[in-house]
């Protein structure tokens, strides 16, 4: 994941300063044919590119719309894919149009004309990785992830169809998305498990060698001296 940060400090949502305890994640897609992050994220940080209309969301909305999400996923000016965090994750966003604003982190995936499978697969993968990151950060699971349309079905979001209007055109669904998040979470967790300790190189059995038995201790001492001189420093005398 190519995660960057440009907090919308000039958006009225950020200025409102309300906090939440994230209990879920809501996936949105923009509903407009513009995959470029600069349409929504600004001002230009050198990677985004210039928005000639200056209609990004990091400002008070002239039409009075109260809208803000926690992140956007889309294209940088060089065509590569990135995620831009635009609100602190525990900041109350204005993305759901309902009670989900009080409980869910919301992010937008920038839509294109829905025909570019390469672009879709890249932003889809980026979205999966963002959700994995947030699940680990807030102790969530794939079951805590919903699309905007599912939020409406649950009565906690406004009546929008995203991302169901886009995902199926490339063979994906929110169920598939959750499954991919789960698989990635499991894979990352498995890779962090402590590897088993290698078997000890020490033998389980010890074999002792006796070089003689002497009735006179002086003779035993003399032999012990010869054995140690030969390099067998562990040699000892045992009385029976």
Automatic annotation (TrEMBL):
> What sequence ranges are listed for the domain SPOR?
201-240
Sorted alphabetically, which PROSITE patterns does this protein's record hold?
Answer: SPOR
State the Gene Ontology terms under molecular function.
N-acetylmuramoyl-L-alanine amidase activity; peptidoglycan binding
In the record, which residues are listed under signal peptide?
none
**Catalytic function, reaction form:** Hydrolyzes the link between N-acetylmuramoyl residues and L-amino acid residues in certain cell-wall glycopeptides
- Gene3D superfamilies (alphabetical): Peptidoglycan recognition protein-like (3.40.80.10)
State the EC number(s). Answer: 3.5.1.28
Superkingdom: Bacteria
What does the record list as GO biological process? cell wall organization; peptidoglycan catabolic process; peptidoglycan turnover
**InterPro entries with a match to the protein in the record:** Amidase/PGRP_sf (IPR036505), Amidase_domain (IPR002502), NAMLAA_amidase_2 (IPR051206), SPOR-like_dom (IPR007730), SPOR-like_sf (IPR036680)
Q: Which UniProt keywords apply?
A: Cell wall biogenesis/degradation, Hydrolase
Which PANTHER family does the record cross-reference, listed alphabetically?
Answer: N-ACETYLMURAMOYL-L-ALANINE AMIDASE AMID (PTHR30417:SF1)
Protein name (Swiss-Prot/TrEMBL):
N-acetylmuramoyl-L-alanine amidase
Mind giving the lineage of the organism this protein is from? Answer: Bacteria, Bacillati, Bacillota, Bacilli, Lactobacillales
